[in-house]
Amino acid sequence: MCTISAASCFPEPFINDGKRLGFVHRNFAGTRFSDHVALLSVFQAWDEVRINGEEAENRFCEHKRLNMSTLRMTWEAKVQLKDILVNSGFPEECLMTQMFNTVGPDNNLDVVVSLLTYGSYPNVCYHKEKRKILTTEGRNALIHKSSVNCPFSSHDIKYPSPFFVFGEKIRTRAISAKGMTLVSPLQLLLFACKKISSNGEIMELDDWIKLKIPHEVAGGIAVLRAGLEALVVEVTKDPEYINQMDQSNERLLNVIRQVSKPSAAGINLMAGNQRYHRGRRFDSHKLTRITLKTAVRV
Fold first, then answer.
1. Residue 221 included in any domain
2. Has residue 115 been placed in a domain?
3. Which residues contact 277 (CB under 8 A, 6 or more apart)?
4. Whole-angstrom Cα distance, residue 259 to residue 292?
5. Which of 29, 71, 168, 177 has the smallest C-beta neighbourhood within 10 Å, fewest atoms?
6. Is 189 a member of any domain?
7. Which of 135, 129, 193 lies closest to 169, judged by CA?
8. Which residues, in sequence order, are CB contacts of 5 under 8 Å at separation 6+?
9. Which of 74, 101, 79 has its CA nearest to residue 92?
């Protein structure tokens, strides 16, 4: 998260001359449909290469069409951010560099996406077709051309889920969303809504996102929010609590890890990796029924 936070302070490191990103850059996102994961992956790859010297670093940046100065500034900002957190009392071991798998199952990366969902709210959008999206309260916008999720020309993409969180809106000739990451309906339910209502069959989030989801599932997810918010407050007051967490909060975190998995919402990111071809659109009524016994105990 320190890497993504630091990277958000600077322009993207991709050299694309104002055009849509090519596969040399899109491939960094793996199967995650995420600009944030692409940035994380770029930084991870660059960090591994640069230990071999400046010449290797130069070759890598030239081959992958990356701005080396931006990557170096991101590294410096990340170090400063980690120092601030450590000086605030957060244990160093929880800020150690992690390696992520962007092309296969990785529950740690699932949790990163959940944290992005939590931090990005209320910047939520729904994909309609091609570049067209709906943002909060059903307002029209476009996927920014610098996004790994932006379709090529007139091509359409059928995403595994139509829901995304994004970093910011840019207004040029039209309003565009930058820094987009695909999320599941369960992640929205737990991390990215203030109001949940129901008409008996349909759950509605913040009066505009409609989900057809079993009520016992929605209720089991929603009840976790109070525990999550209390845990955030506790850790903020006493960062050392991370190393001495009680059993109930350990169970809460384990449930959150399970809810964060795409498969918990019936989403298969690996199915054919059909990012730029025809594929099925996520249908919210096909949500997998997850086990809530553990959630109830928490």
1. no
2. no
3. none
4. 10
5. 168
6. no
7. 135
8. 78, 81
9. 79
Q: How far apart are CA 283 and CA 263, in angstroms?
A: 13
- Give the separation between CA 83 and CA 92, rounded to whole angstroms: 9
Within a domain: 27: yes
Report the alpha-carbon distance of residue 295 to residue 254 in Å, rounded: 9
Paired tokens of 16: 């694309």
Please tell me the total count of domains within the chain. Answer: 1
Both structure tokens of 7: 């990277």
- Per-residue model confidence as pLDDT tens for the chain (298 residues): 999 999 999 999 999 987 899 999 999 999 999 999 999 999 999 999 999 999 999 999 999 999 999 999 999 999 999 999 999 999 999 999 899 999 999 999 999 999 999 999 999 999 999 999 999 878 999 999 999 999 987 678 889 999 999 999 998 888 999 999 999 999 999 999 999 998 878 999 999 999 999 888 899 999 999 999 999 999 999 999 999 999 999 999 999 999 999 999 999 997 645 444 433 333 443 443 333 333 333 3
**Token couple for 83:** 């120092």
Q: Which domain holds residue 65?
A: 2-104
Pair 69, 9: CB distance under 8 Å: no
